[in-house]
Amino acid sequence: MIDDRVRILLFTTELKNFTQLNVMIVNIDKMENGISPLLLHCTFPGSQDKYFGYFYKNSDKINLPLILYIYGGPHGVLIRNTYSPNVYKSVETILNCEYAVLVLETKTVSERGKIREEGFFKRMGQFEVEEHVKVANELINKYSLSIDKNTIGIYGWSYGGFLALMGISKMSNYFKIVQSLNTLRLFPMSNLFFGKRVTLDP
Fold first, then answer.
1. Could you tell me the CATH superfamily of domain 28-194?
2. Cα–Cα distances in Å, from 62 out to 49, 119, 145, 146, 148?
3. Which terminus of the chain, N or C, has less C-beta within 10 A?
4. Most confident residue range from 11-20, 21-30, 85-94
5. What is the predicted pLDDT for the residue at 152?
6. Cα(202)–Cα(139) distance, rounded to whole angstroms?
């Protein structure tokens, strides 16, 4: 029997002449301060996509303000089976300021199969913010997360920083706080990762 903290995700990557089956075991380890996140997931009617999130809370207080920790780009995975200092040190810093944190992973992430990545092609910045908000709202309601729905912020680095700025500009009625770090601004200068592979023309 699989421990509740472990989820096995099976996904396929369609290649030219065969299908490669990849298996990833998501094991939610405790952070260095002993805090264990809650693994969340949801689906939507008419779609086979499954969305995941980690929910962190380091306080007994109810209705804490919430920070959405996002990346959303085509070359990063936040929900994985390895300890990521870059992610969790940031999460710990936010928690110490008495915020709850929801780390989100949507369908634009890499390593979930070619079909999911194709939905990102030539659409950068056009749908990710709305998708993150949709998933966040579903997870908050599904799991009855004790957060202040009137004080939700967005935090991201690199492509996530780009989306954080997009979020505050497109949905300022939803996001009250924004932190954008190492923001991706000049797409032509990032041609290797975000140019012709994803947008065709930078």
1. Alpha/Beta hydrolase fold, catalytic domain (3.40.50.1820)
2. 31, 37, 9, 6, 8
3. N
4. 85-94
5. 97
6. 34
